[in-house]
Design a protein that fits this description.
This is Fatty acid desaturase. With about 350 residues, the protein is mainly α. Helices cover about 60% and strands about 0% of the residues. A two-stranded parallel ribbon has the order 1-2. Helix 2 (about 30-55) runs antiparallel to helix 3 (about 65-85) and helix 3 packs across helix 9.
């Protein structure tokens, strides 16, 4: 058991109450500045995507290909990390703008938004790093905790968990969100699975057609370099998303838990578990934006529905509270967190 989970119930409740106060302050302060932030990001994203598409349409002319690919890559990262992920968390629902609402947003990703919100918002954020409850703890295929049983296939996880998974991360997540193992275990009906599969197939077909058929055809003589530019942008986005997500959940210091340890968990104890099970990445403003502010993974797991631009603002308060109650606050530069994550992947691959 993590030492911080041994906090007396009264201490955990006090920790939770102080976090609730931080949350209430942010909710009371939300307003024009936050709305301007998200709308500015949407405008930047659209400009980068339009510029990238236009440049790739004439990518036979140098330096259109590298410029177009760079713009499209950045646009896809912004849309996936800072826009799609956070909008689908309901962080901007308070604006009552149907164009920026969790119930209407459909992102540039093969997974339908409704499927992702179930596996991510409902399951992962509720059961963060609880073995047997949080499917994101190793994404079913990987062993990332000593409390997970070891199987011979885990010897290969340094291969399939990184070099094979990262470039196609969006498609792997689409398959993962279908919850095929739940059908085998009898927790999900075949009918429900087939319905989800049809939804994923429709969305995936649209995504594939858009990037690898429609826009290359519109590029005419530049069709092949345009297709390669789209493929490069998607691959780079996938590798970046894989890196950020793994560094936020699996480096040294990010704890996992058993179901027995969280039995009868109070709201304060839930807060403690979120802090213990997450890890931050240190860096400048650009890094934070390109990670969707998931570089503040601890703050995100404590307050998944607060506007992402507020995480950096409240991070010093959260860190001070963790120190006050003796709760480890795991943070470090990207390269260190990435190396630590891979050390864990290799360690957990062994019996």
């Amino acid at each position: 058991m993590a030492a911080a989970l041994a906090l007396a119930p009264s201490e955990a409740d006090a920790f939770g109450q102080e976090l609730d106060r931080i949350r209430a302050e942010v909710l009371a302060e939300r307003g024009a500045e936050d709305a301007r932030y998200i709308r500015t990001l949407i405008t930047v994203h659209r400009a980068l995507e339009a510029g990238g598409r236009a440049a790739l349409a004439v990518s036979l002319l140098p330096p259109a290909w590298p410029a177009g690919t760079a713009m499209l890559t950045t646009a896809k990262i912004l849309e996936n990390m800072e826009l799609g992920h956070n909008i689908l968390h309901g962080q901007w629902d308070w604006m009552r703008d149907p164009a920026i609402h969790s119930t209407t947003w459909e992102w540039d990703f093969p997974t339908p938004a409704t499927a992702w919100k179930h596996t991510h918002n409902d399951l992962h954020h509720t059961w963060t790093n609880v073995v047997g409850r949080d499917r994101d703890l190793g994404y079913v295929a990987m062993r990332m905790s000593e409390d997970q049983p070891w199987r011979p296939v885990h010897l290969l996880q340094p291969l399939y968990g990184g070099p094979l998974l990262a470039p196609v991360f969006e498609w792997a997540i689409a398959l993962y969100d279908l919850e095929p193992e739940a059908v085998v275990q009898g927790r999900k009906s075949v009918r429900a699975f087939l319905g989800d599969l049809a939804g994923m197939a429709r969305k995936g077909t649209r995504q594939f057609t858009k990037d690898y058929i429609l826009f290359p055809l519109l590029a005419g003589p530049s069709a092949l370099p345009c297709l390669l530019g789209n493929l490069t942008a998607n691959t780079a986005r996938n590798i970046w998303a894989h890196t950020v997500i793994f560094c936020g959940h699996f480096p040294a210091g990010a704890e996992s838990f058993t179901e027995d340890e969280i039995e009868g968990e109070s709201r304060g104890e839930w807060y403690v578990r979120q802090a213990l099970g997450s890890a931050n990445i240190e860096g400048g403003p650009l890094l934070h934006i390109l990670t969707g502010n998931l570089s503040h993974q601890i703050e995100h797991h404590l307050f998944p529905d607060l506007p992402s631009n507020r995480y950096g603002q409240i991070a010093p308060q959260v860190r001070k509270l963790c120190e006050k109650y003796g709760i480890p606050y795991t943070t470090g530069p990207l390269l260190r967190q990435y190396a630590s994550t891979w050390a864990r992947i290799w360690r957990m691959a062994l019996p």
